[in-house]
Every structure is written in C-alpha cells, then in structure tokens.
Design goal:
single chain; alpha/beta; 4 helices; 79 residues
C-alpha cells in the first residue's frame, strides 16, 4: 500500500514506470520518459552514462529496488 505522501506525489500526474529489461537499451525512449510528471525506475534501470540517458531518461523521482542494491544507492550522485 502506498503511503499518503506517495499518493499525493502521483495524484493527478502523468506517471511512467520504467522496468529494468536490457531491451530498453535498444531504444531511445529517454525524452519520452522524461516528459512525464513523475518517473519511477524499477531495479537497476537508472541511467549513468550518456547512452543510457538516451534509453532510460535522465530523471528518477522514485526508485523501487530491493535491499541488495542498497550499496548502489549510496554511490549515486544527487543531482
């Protein structure tokens, strides 16, 4: 169940959920993904390089992941 603050974050917004399939790297959906009001990335689907930005977008408003990726989260730059 979403917390009230998360519900308020997405209420009446255009939301996109970006999965972590390697197939995403075969397409340039970055601008389309970034055009949404709220961008949710799942798993390892967070762009780090210019090529990945073209495929995955440059924004991450919400990141959904398991605890095994916690170490990755501590190395991401806060833009």
């Amino acid at each position: 169940m979403l917390s009230i603050s998360t519900q308020n974050l997405v209420k009446n917004k255009r939301v996109v959920l970006v999965g972590n399939s390697v197939e995403m790297m075969n397409f340039e959906y970055g601008d389309f993904i970034d055009s949404f009001d709220v961008v949710i990335h799942h798993g390892a689907a967070i762009a780090k390089t210019q090529a990945q930005y073209k495929s995955l977008g440059s924004r991450t408003d919400i990141w959904i992941t398991g605890t095994f990726r916690f170490r990755v989260a501590t190395t991401l730059k806060d833009d």
